[in-house]
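Try this one yourself first.
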């Protein structure tokens, strides 16, 4: 019988949707219709365990699960013997120190000898030590943002994405201590057979990620502008150029990275490109 790779994902919460979407984009069918805690994928040797996110690093360390999708913040705080294999591009947030908006603290140094409330005591104490700040850390498991208002602490250290929770609680960020996103973690002692399944999953994940970071560009260009346009659009090797029915014009096809995108589009227009179409890429195998 073929082995299956056991993957732990968050049962519900901020990483659930992203985790299931990524598996789907990898062509792996997992139905969690009955809210089961354990589901076998229909078309890939994968068994999915749905767990609380805080438990995932420990389960992966102890080989209850072989791999997991979990926030890097949780991995760093748990400090378990596991390997981070790949960043996954969703669940992006930052762990930041914030203080009351109209209070007397402005910088990290102002927090010397003060009290900071957090659910991340390990990451915070490491950071404070590195910066030579002595503050007392008050560990709480939730609703950290109300701590200063109820007199529990002078500052907080918590996860932020848009910053709207800080805003509603009249707090301002003064220091980012960790940038986080969902990561793929693995047990350190996978069997050879499990490693092969992981390689195959990783190949799919990387193809999906690459496709997301790139766009397919299709445009029309007058032939005398082709050289300039091709310099703006390097493509995977070089752009594909096909003659149009209208003489003196060509159709140019290429792939462009999300980061260069807006910059390049402006240059392409200025160089005489017309009818520019930008098409999402589903998978990218190089
Ligand atoms: P569980 O019930 O599984 O323990 P939780 O309440 O601890 O869930 P969530 O709030 O669902 O956790 O967040 C899961 C992860 O989502 C976080 O650990 C973090 O990596 C990521 N995340 C992204 N943006 C945010 C944010 N604004 N606030 C909190 N977590 C965020
Ligand atoms: Mg949790």
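Now uncover the answer:
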């Amino acid at each position: 019988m073929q082995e299956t790779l056991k993957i732990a994902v968050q049962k519900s919460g901020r990483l659930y949707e992203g985790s299931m979407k990524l598996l789907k984009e990898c062509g792996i069918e997992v139905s969690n219709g009955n809210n089961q805690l354990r589901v076998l994928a229909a078309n890939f040797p994968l068994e999915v365990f749905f767990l609380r996110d805080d438990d995932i690093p420990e389960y992966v360390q102890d080989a209850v699960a072989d791999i997991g999708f979990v926030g890097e913040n949780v991995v760093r705080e748990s400090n378990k013997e596991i390997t981070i294999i790949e960043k996954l591009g969703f669940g992006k947030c930052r762990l930041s120190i914030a203080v009351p908006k109209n209070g007397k603290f402005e910088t990290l140094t102002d927090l010397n000898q003060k009290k900071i409330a957090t659910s991340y005591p390990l990451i915070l104490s490491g950071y404070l030590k590195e910066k030579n700040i002595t503050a007392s850390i008050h560990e709480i498991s939730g609703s950290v943002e109300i701590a200063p208002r109820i007199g529990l602490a002078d500052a907080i250290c918590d996860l932020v994405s848009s910053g709207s929770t800080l805003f509603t609680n009249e707090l301002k960020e003064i220091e980012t201590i960790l940038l986080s996103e969902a990561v793929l973690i693995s047990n350190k002692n996978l069997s050879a057979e499990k490693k092969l399944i992981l390689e195959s999953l990783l190949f799919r994940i990387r193809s999906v990620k690459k496709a997301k970071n790139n766009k397919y560009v299709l445009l029309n260009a007058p032939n005398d502008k082709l050289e300039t346009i091709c310099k703006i659009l390097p493509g995977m090797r070089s752009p594909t150029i096909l003659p149009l029915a209208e003489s003196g014009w060509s159709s140019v096809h290429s792939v462009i990275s999300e980061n260069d995108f807006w910059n390049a589009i402006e240059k392409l227009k200025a160089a005489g490109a017309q009818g520019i179409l930008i098409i999402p890429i589903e998978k990218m195998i190089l």
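Discussion: Residues 52-54 surround magnesium ion (ligand 2) (CB under 6 Å). Helices lie at 16-25, 56-61, 72-78, 121-130, 164-168, 192-212, 226-232, 261-270.
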